[in-house]
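Quick one, T. Sequence first:
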Amino acid sequence: MTTPSPIGARYNNSEYLENNADWHASDSAWKARQINKILERNNIRPETICEVGCGAGEILVQLQQSTSASRLDGYELSTDAFELCSSKAKDGLNFYLDDIENATSTYDILLCIDVFEHVENYIEFVRNLRTKAEYKIFHIPLDISISSIIRGGMMRARHAIGHLHYFTPETAIATLEDAGLEIVDQFYTAPFAGPDCIPAKSVGQKALKIPRILLYSISPEFLSKTIGGCSLLVLT
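C-alpha cells:
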C-alpha cells in the first residue's frame, strides 16, 4: 500500500469523516454475511484473517463472532478511521495504523472490502497483496451503469465517498487478473434485497429499490449495467 498522496488527504483531515460519519460501519454486518457466504461456498474455515483498509473495524468485529478465526488483524492508514477501530480491539482482534506491506505475518484470508477503487495506483496495490494471504476476498462496487452515466453517479461517488476508479463486472475481474490473481469464485451482492438488506439511505435508493429487486431476480449482470446498485464479491 502506498503512502497517501494529496488526493488521499481527505482520509486524515476529517473531510471523509464529515461526509461518512460512521465510516460505513452500519453496512458492516451485511458485508460480513457476504464474506461468510463465499467462505462457506468454498468450504474455507480460516484461523487467521486480516483486512486492508479496515475503516471502523466493524467487519472484523462481526467476523470474530461468526467465523472460526482466532486471530483477526485490521490495517488502516487513515488516522481518522484508526480512532474509530482501535477502541474495538480485544483478545484475538487487533488494529494497526500501518501499511500491510510492513506486516511480517501472513494470513489464511485477506479482505479488501470496497477499498482499491480509492487507491491511485490500484493495480500495483492489488498486486502487492498477493503474498500476504493464501486467499484474498475483494468486494468491488460496480459504479459504471447507464443510469450512473446519465445521472452523474460516478462524480457523486468521487466527491462523497472518494472513488477514483469505476468498474463493470468485466473490468473488475480483469483488474484482479492483471494483478496476477487467480479467480476462485465470485457472485453479485445486492444490498437492497432480502430481509437483512441495508436500509435505503436516500430518496433515490428508495425509489429504485423495487426495480432493482425485479431486475436482480432476472439478471444481476443486466441490473449492474442498467440502473446499477450491485457490487461484486470475488475470492482469489
